[in-house]
């Protein structure tokens, strides 16, 4: 895998991770809501107009374009496992930004993911 291919994959992964974090920030801003027929329009409007959610959806759109560019250069059996890097990024960013717990068990799982991505990338 050359530098351009790896850069496209990494950019797609990071955009996808950022999208998830923005969606989480948006849902935090909207707050907890009940699923009911009466809430469809008011909550739907809140979600549709929340800037973080709009940003997250925008990042997803851009990440799909970048991902398509990456897939045109790299075998899907190599590219797709690289999405696991997003788990690592999101776990660390969620800990830092939202105060989410990162237990020893999660850290061990993150370590396994890192080793797995390294093995796939070297193949």
UniProtKB/TrEMBL annotation:
The chain crosses the membrane at residues 52-71, 78-98, 104-121. The keyword Cell membrane applies. It is found in: Cell membrane. It is a multi-pass membrane protein. It holds the Pfam family Multi_Drug_Res. GO terms for molecular function: transmembrane transporter activity. One of its GO terms (cellular component) is plasma membrane. Keywords: Cell membrane, Membrane, Transmembrane, Transmembrane helix. Belongs to the drug/metabolite transporter (DMT) superfamily. Small multidrug resistance (SMR) (TC 2.A.7.1) family. This is 4-amino-4-deoxy-L-arabinose transferase. The lineage of its organism: Bacteria, Pseudomonadati, Pseudomonadota, Betaproteobacteria, Nitrosomonadales.
């Amino acid at each position: 895998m050359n530098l351009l291919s790896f850069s496209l994959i990494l950019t797609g992964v990071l955009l996808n991770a950022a999208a998830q974090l923005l969606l989480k920030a948006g849902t935090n801003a909207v707050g907890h809501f009940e699923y009911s027929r009466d809430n469809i329009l008011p909550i739907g409007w809140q979600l549709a107009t929340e800037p973080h959610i709009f940003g997250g959806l925008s990042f997803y759109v851009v990440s799909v374009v970048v991902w398509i560019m990456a897939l045109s250069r790299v075998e899907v059996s190599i590219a797709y496992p690289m999405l696991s890097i997003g788990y690592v990024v999101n776990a660390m960013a969620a800990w830092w930004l939202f105060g989410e717990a990162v237990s020893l068990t999660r850290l061990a799982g993150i370590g396994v993911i890192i080793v797995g991505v390294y093995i796939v990338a070297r193949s």
